[in-house]
Write a structure and sequence with these properties.
Helix content is 9%, strand content 39%. The chain is mainly β. The chain is globular and about 30 Å long.
């Protein structure tokens, strides 16, 4: 995402499935996102998940087929992603054996 001055190393290149983000000094990113690691969750309806939350970065589309926003929860940033294209190449669903229903980790 060079146009945003954000550089991402795909989770697929990490032994632990971590997506690494780095920011140019003049990237338009809040200090909380720049300095505090965040988690990301896929959501079915980004607009409804944002209702009543403290929004750090409003909803935007950094690439075709995906919308993202950041909220603040207990002083930490959380990224929420909605894939508007169900076949988006970055979409990875963890599935239980023997079922086609996606499962996601529960926040602590």
């Amino acid at each position: 995402m060079k146009h945003l001055k954000v550089f991402v190393v795909s989770h697929e290149k990490s032994e632990f499935g971590v997506e690494w983000m780095r920011f140019e000094p003049d990237a338009a990113v809040p200090d909380l996102v720049r300095h505090v690691p965040h988690v990301a969750f896929e959501v079915a309806d980004l607009a409804s998940e944002l209702a009543g939350r403290e929004i750090l970065i409003p909803s935007s589309s950094p690439s075709e087929g995906v919308r993202v926003a950041f909220i603040v929860e207990n002083g930490a940033p959380i990224e929420l992603l909605e894939f508007t294209d169900p076949n988006h190449p970055a979409r990875r669903q963890r599935r239980k054996r023997g079922t086609s229903k996606p499962t996601y980790p529960s926040p602590l």
